[in-house]
Amino acid sequence: MSTPAQPCRRLVLGSSLAVGAAATLTACGDGSSAAPDNNAKAVPEPSGDPVTVADAADLPVGTSVNVAREGSKDAYLLYRKDEKTVLAYTSVCTHAGCRVGPGDGDFHCPCHDSHFSAEDGTATAGPARAALTRYAAEVSNGKILLYP
Question: Is the pTM of this model over 0.70?
Answer without folding.
Answer: yes
